[in-house]
Amino acid sequence: MTNLWRSWHARALEAVDGLGLLALRLWLAQEFVQAGWMKVAAGPNAPEWFAGLSFPLPLALLGPDWNWRLAGWGELVLGGLLAVGLATRFSALGLGVVTLVAVNTVHFALGWSGWNQIETEAGQGFKLPLMMGVMLLALATQGGGRWSLDTLGARYRSKPSSG
């Protein structure tokens, strides 16, 4: 009976292996793709609210329009890569940078006391970007998981060639 349980348990764990990473990838991808598409669809010129932000160096040297374009295309392309699990670690790190810049420029209105706040009358906290950053850290360190193009490519490359 114990062997039957262990066998069933092992098969169940194998069946769901990578499911959590897939869920993280898809959730984050839809968030970033949506945000990126909003920027790209709005055009190449930054809106007033974005143009009024103070960007950290070296991004401040680019000006608001280039930051708008880079953020939009970065979120769109890296979010798409994250969705299919291609270059997952690179995509997660890139989106982590986008998230850090967003926290620095938009979500830090409450200072460090905003770590557990979303939006208040006093300004925006960085609870959501912090949660997204933790999810991105998991993907950057663990990769895309079993159900990703990264894993499919690694399997393909590791197969011995015949002939």
TrEMBL record:
The keyword Acyltransferase does not apply. The keyword Zinc does not apply. InterPro entries: DoxX, DoxX-like_oxidoreductase. The chain crosses the membrane at residues 92-110, 130-149. Its main location: membrane. GO terms for cellular component: plasma membrane. It is a multi-pass membrane protein. PANTHER family: DOXX FAMILY PROTEIN, OXIDOREDUCTASE CATD-RELATED. This is DoxX family protein. It comes from Inhella gelatinilytica.
